[in-house]
Write a structure and sequence with these properties.
about 425 residues; alpha+beta; Aminopeptidase; two-stranded antiparallel sheet; disordered C terminus
Length: about 425
């Protein structure tokens, strides 16, 4: 009886959410609200949908939404509250009854070095984020591929596609899912490419589009022509005003680390932000000095920098940390990006990954998923909360190719309920003692 009572509140709440998150209820709720309140209604509906329709728990949603809006972005707390209001309520009921084991925050040094050694033999420079050491690493049996992941509540969240040989992906994904479920957690993959979707679908994972990733083809990048006139004027003005670009080789970075740290602290303070980690770099001297760093100087003083991840077999590069002293010069970031592209092109690199534009490129035709329609409303009407269009516009300046990125979610695990017995605590799992 105690077990039945423990599960009843969560079951009632979930059934309520299933009704509230149905397409008909959502459409009616959004349409009957006054125009000024429709965005809020859409946010509330997203929260219910994430919990019931999409079956994403509060820990996955909290992790996923924060990462979605921080792919070099930051999520305002008001938007977090609006989206998470429904998911938090159900999660609190479960959290009182379950207490899963935790996973270490970082891999052992041997596994981390093994992953780093593999970077030059795979195709994505962004995989260099494994160097942060804030993620666990799971290797394939052959040792030629790995998944980097972190635990968030009761979810194991993998970052990007598996890294390494594609032939090893299917078995590695199955192993990751089994390990996650053995720990009582749900498997989740964040920012995966279309190449990963066949593998994901075969093992029962469900995809939701997050946005579009901007990738510049450096071989064809050229600032000539009328289409580039506005950008040329911006960087020419920055150069005339004394902004000077240079690319520091790996061995040159330690000598300016204190200057870079000062710029980073100024940028974080101005944005009232803290280091994010996981899918974004953090200012750790060892990590920053692991590759080249592009800097902008004024009168010899560093006022902006970006560290570049450049280890890949395909000639791909990735801009990670981008920090600057605010209000220094209007064209400073244009100059930084263009000069990075010109330098990498001259060095023989083929592509430059500029990161994701959240909620961009979601189709809204009549057969598109409900998630797409709601996310598009947030993209169109959510400028007061986050500069969705501004991020898309800035990256569009450089004429990138756009590649879709997805959140892929596994089925929810069965949750054990902890029942107080008058002699001892017992763990129950669907009515059975494990």
């Amino acid at each position: 009886m105690q077990q039945a009572f423990a599960g009843r509140p969560a079951a009632i709440w979930e059934k309520t959410l299933l009704i509230l998150s149905s397409p008909l209820a959502g459409a009616l709720m959004i349409r009957v609200m006054p125009a000024g309140r429709r965005l809020l209604a859409a946010f509330a509906f997203v929260g219910a949908g994430l919990m019931a329709g999409l079956a994403i728990e509060d820990d996955v949603a909290g992790f996923g939404w924060n990462r979605l809006f921080s792919g070099s972005l930051q999520l305002p707390i008001g938007l977090v509250i609006a989206i998470m209001v429904c998911t938090l309520a159900s999660g609190r009921l479960r959290r009182a009854a379950v207490s899963p084991a935790t996973v270490a925050a970082s891999p052992c040094k041997d596994r981390l070095q093994q992953a780093v050694d593999l970077l030059a033999r795979q195709n994505s420079a962004a995989a260099g984020l494994v160097r942060l050491g804030d993620k666990q690493v799971l290797f394939s049996d052959c040792g030629e591929a790995f998944i980097m992941y972190a635990r968030s509540g009761r979810s194991w969240v993998a970052l990007f596609d598996p890294v390494g040989a594609c032939a090893a992906w299917p078995a590695l994904v199955v192993r990751f899912m089994e390990e996650a479920r053995r720990a009582g957690c749900r498997p989740v993959f964040y920012q995966v490419s279309p190449d990963f979707l066949p593998c994901a679908i075969e093992v029962g994972l469900k995809p939701y589009k997050l946005g579009e990733q901007a990738v510049v083809d450096l071989a064809s990048f050229d600032m000539k022509g009328g289409d580039w006139l506005k950008l040329r004027r911006s960087i020419n003005r920055a150069t005339r005003d004394g902004l000077d670009f240079s690319m520091l080789a790996r061995e040159e970075v330690p000598a300016v680390m204190d200057e870079l740290l000062a710029v980073s602290r100024t940028w974080l303070s101005a944005h009232n932000a803290a280091e994010k980690g996981f899918s974004l770099g953090t200012f750790e001297p060892g990590y920053v000095a692991a590759g080249p760093v592009a800097v902008i100087r004024i009168e010899g003083r560093i006022v902006a920098f970006a560290n570049i991840l450049a280890e890949s077999a395909s000639g791909d590069a990735f801009i990670d940390l981008m920090r600057h002293v605010p209000d220094t010069h209007r064209g400073m970031m244009d100059l930084l990006f263009v000069k990075i592209m010109e330098h990498l092109k001259a060095e023989g690199f083929s592509t430059l990954n500029l990161g994701m534009a959240p909620l961009a490129g979601l189709s809204t035709h009549i057969r598109a998923p409900l998630w797409n329609h709601i996310a598009r409303q947030v993209f169109d009407n959510g400028e007061r909360f986050y500069n969705f269009r501004g991020v898309l516009a800035f990256k569009s300046k450089f004429d990138p190719q756009w590649h879709p990125r997805y959140l892929v979610v596994g089925p929810r695990p069965s949750f054990p309920f902890r029942i107080r017995h008058h002699h001892a605590d017992r763990w129950w799992h669907q009515g059975r003692v494990p």
